[in-house]
Amino acid sequence: MEYSVAQREMLFRNLAGNPTARHVAERALQIEDEEEAKRKENSDLYPWMGFEWHAIPAQPAQLNQLAIDELLVTGGGRNTYRSRSTSTYKLKDPELVRECLKHLGEIEEGQEETEIPPDLFDFILGHE
User: Which long-range contacts (CB under 8 A, 24 or more apart) does 115-120 make?
Assistant: First the structure.
């Protein structure tokens, strides 16, 4: 699926600026990949309804806020389930999340501490 620049930018900023969202996205992606692998091995399994709050672990209020921020879906979207006692969640766009997490990792790898050269201020007149 093709994603717009605005969708990519919004999700990237959400994941980069919110450590909770990033943790939930990483763990949710891992859970969804594991469930998808189970379904490939055994096609007789019932459709997976999504993860609950204790699988991440995160507070339900945090997960509901991430659903409002359009990182997660619950209550019908992508075959999720919601009742008075249970809510299941899935990532809204798992491939977009995977792409954004990959780019975040690449950026963080490039932020290594470098050594400042001793002659950095030599060309500035009047600096002693």
Answer: none
